[in-house]
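Data card: per-record layout.
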Amino acid sequence: MLGVMLDWSQCPAVERDPEKVSGAWVFKGTRVPVKALFENLEDGARVDDLLDWFPGVTREQIDAVLEHAQQSLVEA
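The structure for this 76-residue chain is written out next.
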């Protein structure tokens, strides 16, 4: 995302735990890294694809992460 560092601590759809996925930000209640969302979208995946590929991640979580990223970029 153009090297912009986002403050994920303000996004309710994600969490970080040093015991999970090496402390990466993940979708709350899962082990799916937030980074996977953006990498797959950049590669042409659709949200529906992601919902199929990552059981446990909800559309609401994806929407919240995308909204958070958009707001963070607007405020930057």
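Known properties of this structure: Residues 59-75 form the longest helix (17 residues). The CA atoms of residues 29 and 56 lie 8 Å apart.

See the next section for split statistics.
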